[in-house]
Amino acid sequence: MNLFCSQDKSRLGNMEIDKAIRESDDRRLKTKYNNAIYVIKRALALYSTEEVAFSFNGGKDSTVLLHLLRAGYCLHKMEQNCSNGSLNGFPIRTIYFESSSAFCEINSFTYDTASSYGLQLDIISSDFKSGLEKLLKANPIRAIFLGVRIGDPTAVGQEQFSPSSPGWPPFMRVNPILDWSYRDVWAFILTCKVQYCSLYDQGYTSIGSIHDTVPNALLSISDSSSCKEKFKPAYLLSDGRLERAGRGKKFSSSVDNGPGSVDSHKSSLLIASVIAVGEEILFGTVEDQLGPSLCRKLHSIGWSVSQTAVVRNDIDSVAEEVERRKSTNDMVFLYGGVGPLHSDVTLAGVAKAFGVRLAPDEEFEEYLRHLISDHCSGDRNEGHSFIMWNDDNLLEIMYLLLWNQIPSLMGLTYLKIKTIDLDMMALLPEGITELLHHEKLAVPLIKCQNVIIFTATNVTELDTEWDCLIELTRSCDLLSTMEPCMSKHLQTNLSDEQAQIESAVESLCKKFHPGAFSEIH
Ligand SMILES: Cc1cc2nc3c(=O)[nH]c(=O)nc-3n(C[C@H](O)[C@H](O)[C@H](O)COP(=O)(O)O)c2cc1C
Ligand SMILES: Nc1ncnc2c1ncn2[C@@H]1O[C@H](COP(=O)(O)OP(=O)(O)OP(=O)(O)O)[C@@H](O)[C@H]1O
Ligand SMILES: [Mg+2]
């Protein structure tokens, strides 16, 4: 179906967006805007208007992209001296994959927006892949603009220009807001006074289907007197990493149901691998107490440890070991090599093992900045954040505070450093990282799919991190496999009475609910 809609007088003019951003004093937003416009202009220089399409679904990210495209298209035409900045309608073909499980608010916002801005809306009722196949057969489309952002599960491995995946019809995916954070999206919407779908004012922070999306519990306003739960608007979510918290079911399954899926092992013994990173352990300079302690902890909750390994603090050594272990174990635990130094490469190794980049995580950076703001004077410098230290000791304090680490061998080197680039510290494996916050932890635990990274450097810190992890497993679906269980091993010399032993085991199992016992091989 093709709708060519008439325009609404109340809509934002094309260049009003550009003007609002230029007049704003939010330097970060200006930079993000300029980069996105640059990507759009490059795409429009590479492909003709007939060869591009815009994938619009009424969500906040695609709403931002719509306005960027309108501004970018005008700027592109002005540079070619074809326009004076006014534009009738929106000439880029817009596609919407309609589904019976979409929210009606999303549908009506999509259609109203199409009508206000004169979008040529192609409504496609089939699934993404076959819909795109048909679209590309019938039209000369070579590139599609998407509102995908880092942190979306589908963004893993994507760049601003990414060819469609193997098995998909061939086209270029253009992602102008790939590097935008949740906060950037809302800064843009609020600064430009862009209209957005009403669900975002009711606590929804990311919108999928009616079957997998609920308002974000972090925005709940608890009010015992009212029987209907109320929520704050989406732009008040302070930690953008939790934007998909209302899309629990689908998100957790897409993260965890890979090979060695945790769920599939639920009733059998769970297997973990422990990896220590650091030359000091490898060369015997420091005795490793964490490994044995972690093994005991895992054993106490009924897990079996298949392997412990010590690897060098270099990216390839970490990556190789993690890659080897992550598909054959339910969970892989790492410690060592995590911190603000360039030589701390555990996270880079984990990223490499999963084939993703280390990407700056703005919210994590913000979190770190808050944490240390009492101890330093901050200075923002063109997107890079440096913390200036007036006193060498403060650096050490901050280091201890942030990473629970005691500078040992390299202490002298970094006591001399006066600036720390927080952007460097806030690099995390892109698209696969979850930060597990707990009030008792200064720095959250880092979880990349089935790999958990501890920042502890001594047994006491490990005890705290472990207790927090166990506590978090109770409130968090993703780690339900970590729930404590009991394990008792019996040995017997009654080797001739195999049948009797088997029948004793059978009757024990029958006494409890099915699946209560599992065999350890
Ligand atoms: C225009 C368009 C192009 C897409 N191209 C690809 C692709 O090349 N490879 C792929 O694996 N998925 C592709 N997808 C599917 C998305 O990655 C993702 O599955 C979809 O947006 C559903 O996201 P959700 O599960 O968060 O709703 C595409 C989707 C759209 C709308
Ligand atoms: N049903 C759809 N029709 C057209 N495009 C879609 C559809 N679903 C997803 N897309 C494209 O994929 C992008 C990413 O989807 P995603 O759901 O992450 O973002 P959003 O819907 O814009 O915002 P939100 O994260 O708040 O739901 C969208 O911005 C849009 O470009
Ligand atoms: Mg969405």
Automatic annotation (TrEMBL):
Enzyme Commission designation: 2.7.7.2
InterPro entries: MoaB/Mog-like_dom_sf, MoaB/Mog_dom, PAPS_reduct_dom, Rossmann-like_a/b/a_fold
GO MF entries: ATP binding; FMN adenylyltransferase activity
Keyword tags: ATP-binding, FAD, Flavoprotein, FMN, Nucleotide-binding, Nucleotidyltransferase, Transferase
Domain MoaB/Mog: 273-448
Pathway: Cofactor biosynthesis; FAD biosynthesis; FAD from FMN: step 1/1
Reaction(s) catalysed by this chain's protein: FMN + ATP + H(+) = FAD + diphosphate
Gene3D superfamilies, alphabetized: HUPs, MoaB/Mog-like domain
Pfam families found in the cross-reference section: MoCF_biosynth (PF00994), PAPS_reduct (PF01507)
One of the protein's GO biological processes: FAD biosynthetic process
Name used for this protein in its record: FAD synthase
Source species of the chain: Dovyalis caffra
